[in-house]
Design goal:
alpha+beta, Phosphorylase Kinase, domain 1, elongated
């Protein structure tokens, strides 16, 4: 076992080829969701348009899906996300930070919005 961990076999040997096949099998056969280490506020739920979570510091974060087209302007989609949040949540909210969320193809699908509740 020590030889396998230290990779002490010559190239072209059976053991070397077996190790290479095991590594390639691990790379290509392991599902991507196993390594999905995004924070919870960056995950987009397929059935919810607005989802309330919190970050590691305990701040309230809303993940808001947006409808985008190929030529959507950033300001328009940001405003649409804030409007959707305000329609969904009845309490007055102040957005302090916005972070776009992209899918695997690089298309904008949602925003993470850090909010502070207005004090009355």
């Amino acid at each position: 076992m020590k030889k396998f961990f230290l990779w002490s076999f010559e190239r072209g040997s059976i053991q070397y080829d077996v190790i290479c096949v095991v590594i390639l099998a691990f790379i290509f056969l392991t599902p991507g969701r196993i390594f999905d280490d995004r924070p919870d506020f960056m995950r987009v739920s397929p059935d919810e348009t607005v989802r309330k979570t919190s970050d590691k510091d305990g701040n309230t974060v809303f993940t808001v899906k947006v409808d985008t087209t190929a030529f959507s302007a950033t300001e328009i989609t940001q405003k649409a996300a804030v409007d959707r949040l305000n329609k969904t949540v009845s309490a007055p909210m102040k957005v302090s930070r916005m972070l776009p969320i992209y899918d695997t193809m690089g298309a904008l699908i949602a925003y993470s919005l850090w909010v502070e509740e207005d004090e009355k």
